[in-house]
Amino acid sequence: MINGSITLAVIAIIVGFLISILGAFPLTSAASIDSSNESDSDIEQVGERFTVCYKDIINDIASFQDDPDLERANERKETFTSFAQDLMERYETFADGLRNKLDTITAPVN
Predict the structure, then answer these.
(1) Number of neighbours of residue 45 by Cβ within 10 angstroms
(2) Using one digit for the tens of pLDDT, what is the confidence trace for 92-102?
(3) If DSSP codes are grouped into helix, strand and coil, which group holds residue 1?
(4) DSSP letter (8 states) at residue 24
């Protein structure tokens, strides 16, 4: 029973982290996905956001075929570089929080 609780707690933490990352993803409309619908599970929201991000990236790449623009390409590069740096900071914070949570959950009871 305790192992199941630990597993569900870890899954909930990870899914929450994925939702926050995908909501901040550049070029995407994933942030505008309505998360107030309580009938959608967090897992479904993550899946929907991944789908939106994937489609937006493909559409952005295809847009350069129609309208090649070095300035816009450089802006995209800077945007994604900045996002990656922010993502590393968020990941480190997430990893520390998850480690602390797991330490708390799995601490031996005296």
Answers:
(1) 20
(2) 888 888 888 87
(3) coil
(4) T
Query: 91 in a domain, yes or no?
Result: yes
Compute the C-alpha angle 51/56/61, nearest 5°. Answer: 130
**59 part of a folded domain:** yes
Flag whether the pTM goes above 0.70.
no
- Residue carrying the six token digits 């350069």: 64
What the block records as the tokens of 31 is 């942030």
Domain count, the chain: 1
**CA-closest candidate to residue 52, choices 75, 77, 28:** 28
Q: Are 109 and 21 in contact (CB under 8 A)?
A: no
pLDDT of residue 65: 85
d(CA 62, CA 82): 22
Does pLDDT of 21 surpass 70? yes
Establish if 51 belongs to a structural domain. Answer: yes
Residues spanned by the domain of 58: 2-30+40-105
Q: Which two tokens stand for residue 101?
A: 């949570």
